[in-house]
Amino acid sequence: QVQLVESGGGLVQAGGSLRLSCAASGYSVDTMGWFRQAPGKEREFVAAISWSDRSRYSDSVKGRFTISRDNAKNTVYLQMNSLKPEDTAVYYCTARDTIGVFTQSREYDYWGQGTQVTVSS
Known about the structure:
Layout: E1 3-7, E2 10-13, E3 18-25, E4 32-37, E5 44-49, E6 55-57, E7 65-70, E8 75-80, E9 89-95, E10 110-111, E11 115-120
Parallel strand pairs: 2-11
Antiparallel strand pairs: 1-3, 3-8, 4-5, 4-9, 5-6, 7-8, 9-10, 9-11
């Protein structure tokens, strides 16, 4: 089974930046992406990217976050700029076996353990 390991979370001030990484081991996957979950809220789509570099973003992060991937390393990245306190959440890496870039968590097959991102005001 595919395993996903995230890294790069931390504490930053509003307006700062962080870069998250997620490496997939095991079988090759197609789409990789990121969801986040803040305390007391449902898990929310952030961004996803296909093997062919088609990407999709939530409106709340569009223009501030950039998703990218290295297919040779089976790794996805999330560059987060201009961070806001409302970006504070646990960020989860996700992956899907087959073609498709979706915004619903149920469409994905594998999940990482999550990495905490905290943005102070």
